[in-house]
Batch of 2 targets.
Target 1
Amino acid sequence: MAKFQIPEWAFEFHGHKCPFMPIGYRMGTIALEKLGVGKSHNHEMHVLSEMGVGHPQGCMQDGIMAATGATFGKGLMEKLYYGKVAAIFWYPGKGGMRIVLRNEFADKLAPHEFFKFRKQGIQPSEIPEEVRQDIIDIVLNASVEELFNIEMLPNFEYTPVKGSFAKDKCEVCGEYVFERYLRIKDGKKVCIPCSEHEPEEKGFYYPIFKE
Ligand SMILES: [Zn+2]
Ligand SMILES: [Zn+2]
């Protein structure tokens, strides 16, 4: 099998060479292929990453964004905070799919020298180039079957929040606020910090699975 290729700009965007950005890039590429779609230029594909915080595999998400165009900035990447190296991909009219890194592949990577450096607190860009290239090559040379479990979710339902340009000024601080985020306090329309309320949204929406 030919070695999978990742464009150099994706590593530049990510900032360092590590194995998890390429794992995410491969996930995203598979999602495009299996859903039969191209990279999202506008607001097409949505990704629900199952990553959380406090575990370093989050680099995967930059790879997914680079491959699919479903970026955080376009509001197309949400996190479910499950702490898994997995993601759900949804495309309007195409349904969804879930891709998870196989335990066996995670176990295959785990003893690699790369992680010995990482566990000593050494950042990826400080790890010797040949060590990084070697673990990346393991990811790029692996077959799709070796890397991932893939489940098609044709009935997966997802409703993206409707975009709106409507905004108003907070009557306390005077700053513009998008209407969705204005709150009423003492009869005034105010922003969330001026309202002293906690934000009600976590910015993600639990997926609904239908049989
Ligand atoms: Zn990384
Ligand atoms: Zn305010």
Target 2
Amino acid sequence: MKALAFHEFGGPDKLKYEDVPDPTIGPNEVLVRVRACALNHLDLFVREGIPALKTPLPFWTGCDIAGEVAQVGAEVQGVTVGTRVAVNPNLTCGRCEFCRQGEDSLCVRYGILGEHTRGGLAEYVTVRGDNVLPLPPTVSFEEAASFILTNMTAWRMVVTQGRVRPGQDVLIIGVGGGVSSTAVQIARLCGGRVIVTSSDDAKLDKARALGADVGINYKKSPDWARQVFEATGKRGVDVVIENVGAATWKDSIRSLKGGGRLVTCGATSGPVGETLIPLVFWKQVHIIGSTMANRQEFNDVMRLFFAGRLKAIIDEVVPLKDGAAAQQRLAEGKQFGKIVLTP
Ligand SMILES: [Zn+2]
């Protein structure tokens, strides 16, 4: 089969669209013929090399996968060849105390398909039989692939960790990103009033079209935390949704009202941020980490997607062989929503 593989770590120039061995399946696995695979920053991090990860080479990433079941392992129940599916990218042991509580992303052996194992930037991928979810005919492969990872992540952040309630103010930082852009529609679904930041007025307009109430251009207004303060009657917001990290961390905490909750799932601008500790204890704010989602949250958010209550946000669809340029575009932050590759 063809894959967008790399044999050494580095920039997009290391990616080669080349022939690789066909994957095989075990008794509890299915083979999925990939029809669409969306890009995430994770693809870039793995390609550049994560020292702790010990990625086997050659490797190909890709964790947002939709396709057709091509082969079914002997022990897999209820999955048939030809079924159109979305793939849950969680890799879990199923046995540890967290798995037993249903907290997949806290599993002691937790991994992500396409990060810890070879992924969907290829014609075929092997996944566990209970990680495929049938797609309704109304949902395209491209829409499904673009939806999965960012929405399971944003759902856990906004609903489970952020506990957004009707009428609450929600600040979403850097709204061009995949998690941030869809967090707008999820926060709206929860009844929140949404404030977004971006360096780009066009992205602020797109966020307003998704339901954002207030847009702040942080390039034009370096003191954007003050604008958040003004936009909330000098109270601050109930919830901040963060994945930018170092560049915004200090002001994100500043933007919280007393008892507010900052939920973070990433640090794309850098891993070390400045925290004013008195602000944390005096305003009694909560700083909450969040990674991916558990199976229940995955099913909940996919059900709302299938019902048409949450939309896929697609920036562009590109052939897999042109994936290097697409990854460069993602690295430069030029997209709004997801870039989808099709083998
Ligand atoms: Zn586990």
